[in-house]
Structure formats: structure tokens, C-alpha cells
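Notes from the 1:1 (GR / supervisor)

We went over the backlog. Supervisor wanted to see one worked example end to end before approving the batch request, so GR pasted a single chain during the call. The sequence is below; no edits were made to it. Supervisor asked that the structure be written out right there so they could see what the output format looks like.
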Amino acid sequence: MKTTTITTREAQHNLAEVLRRVEQGERIEVLRRKKPVAHIVPVRPAGAEPGKVDWSDLPARLEKIWHGRMAPGHSTDEILDDLRGER
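Structure output shown during the call:
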């Protein structure tokens, strides 16, 4: 998770933008006189345990990222050998 540091003044003047960034997964650390006073972090889904990751939607997320370009059933070594060709 990306962490960004901002001042209390920036947080006050740009709250809507700060919240938009947090909604997208960013963690914001708020400083007052160069000392951390708060963290603004995304809310965990209801029932989610701290430190636990829900991987149930992994296939759908990978499809969205790779658009079916993955090679299921092949080892990483086989894929890299194929991509490298003969050197």
C-alpha cells in the first residue's frame, strides 16, 4: 500500500482529494509541525480480519490485468525459455 505524507493544512484544504486517494487504496500520513499525528487508511470490508487477504476473486483480477495472456499449466522457466527464444 502506497503511503503519502501531507500536512494538516493540506488535509484541510484538499479533503475531497485526500479521500479520493484513500478510496483508491492509498494510505495518507498527516503531519503537524513535522510530527505524524494521524493515518488515513482505506476501510476494510466488513468481516475482514487484519492481516488477512481475500484471494477468492484472484482469477477475475488476473484476467482483468492480463486479458487472458497467461499461460496456465506452464512453469515460469518454460515461459521464460519460450520468450527468450534461442540466444
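Supervisor's comment: The domain at 3-42+53-84 is CATH 3.40.1620.10 (YefM-like fold).
Batch request approved.
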